[in-house]
Design brief:
By secondary structure, the protein is α+β, with helices and mostly antiparallel strands. The chain has two domains: about 5-30 and about 40-60, no CATH class; about 60-279, no CATH class. It is built from ten helices and twelve strands. The chain has helices at about 5-15, 20-30, 45-60, 65-80, 95-120, 175, 195-200, 205-210, 215-220, 270-279, and strands at about 5, 45, 60-65, 125-130, 140-145, 150, 155-160, 170, 185-190, 230-240, 245-250, 250-260. The strands form four sheets. A four-stranded mixed beta sheet has the order 3-10-9-7. A three-stranded antiparallel beta sheet has the order 4-5-6. A hairpin with a 2-residue loop joins strand 11 (about 245-250) and strand 12.
Length: about 280
């Protein structure tokens, strides 16, 4: 048996923040703790198990560049200026500009990460659909190179993105029950897009506006530069593998959702090779 770590040391070993660590082992089943001595026993972890998780996470994580970000920001701004309304789930409250842009950019970053992941790890070229549509959006992968030619995929693929700490792939009821919106396969991604990404990309212009203001010296050295955005390509599942629920840990939904724990997604190299072979 390898080294056994307490929870504090396990968190440090994985490099995750405490909340994400808790979500991953309690809810997502990304990795498990060792058997506890009753409900009040300490959480202990196998370093070997955590090491395997880290290796898997590392090879499935793609760094996205400023050019990748620009492609996604362009899509988000096009959505905004065509007047597309984005509301919070289960409410009539419309999201403000920054929230909308972040949501759209996050979704597109996941798609770009999948494209780069397929090329980097499996030397497979796919074509994404970055066109602007109405309410019904076609599949996210619209082409795959087979025998040197770009061809239409044999299966519909939806690519979904969420925050790094999120334990579940979650789809709304309409995404599954409306045939035109449903995909055969769903890929889940977790891009680490910072909340201040718009500040980072617009840093030069913002500094030029506020540099002569009275408080500028207090924060001038704290304004971050843009840096590459890591995106974990977490795994994939068949639509029929999703579980129909009305709640998950810590969250009640206003209706039905279709979910899959991220740790139970197909994510091994063989799993990805199988996916590519059936596309």
């Amino acid at each position: 048996m390898g080294k056994i770590l307490n929870k504090r040391d396990a968190i440090a070993y994985t490099g995750l923040d405490p909340k994400t660590f808790d979500n991953y082992f309690k809810n997502a089943e990304e990795f498990k703790c060792m058997e506890r001595n009753g409900s009040h026993g300490r959480f202990m972890f196998s370093e070997e198990v955590l090491s395997e998780w880290k290796k898997s996470y590392a090879w499935r994580t793609i760094n996205l560049t400023k050019a990748d970000y620009a492609l996604c920001l362009d899509f988000a701004l096009a959505q905004h200026f065509r007047g597309y309304v984005l509301s919070d789930w289960g409410t009539a409250r419309q999201r403000e500009f920054g929230q909308k842009i972040t949501n759209w950019v996050k979704g597109q970053l996941g798609e770009v990460a999948v494209k780069k992941f397929f090329k980097k790890e499996f030397n497979t070229e796919v074509e994404l659909d970055f066109n602007i549509y109405g309410d019904i959006v076609p599949q996210d992968i619209i082409g795959i190179v087979r025998n040197g030619k770009m061809q239409k995929p044999r299966k519909g693929v939806g690519i979904k993105s969420s925050k790094p700490k999120s334990a579940y792939l979650i789809l709304g009821e309409n995404e599954i029950n409306i045939p035109e919106r449903r995909s055969d396969i769903y890929i889940y991604c977790r891009p680490e897009i910072p909340d201040d990404h718009l500040l980072r990309i617009a840093k030069q212009e913002i500094v030029s506006v506020v540099k002569n203001m009275p408080h500028f010296s207090k924060y001038s050295s704290d304004i971050p530069d843009f840096s590459e955005i890591p995106c974990e390509v977490s795994g994939w599942c068949w639509a029929d593998d999703l579980e129909e629920v009305t709640s998950i840990e810590g969250q009640e939904f206003d209706g039905k959702r279709f979910v899959k724990k991220s740790g139970l997604l197909k994510k091994s190299r063989k799993d990805w090779e199988k996916l590519i072979s059936i596309l």
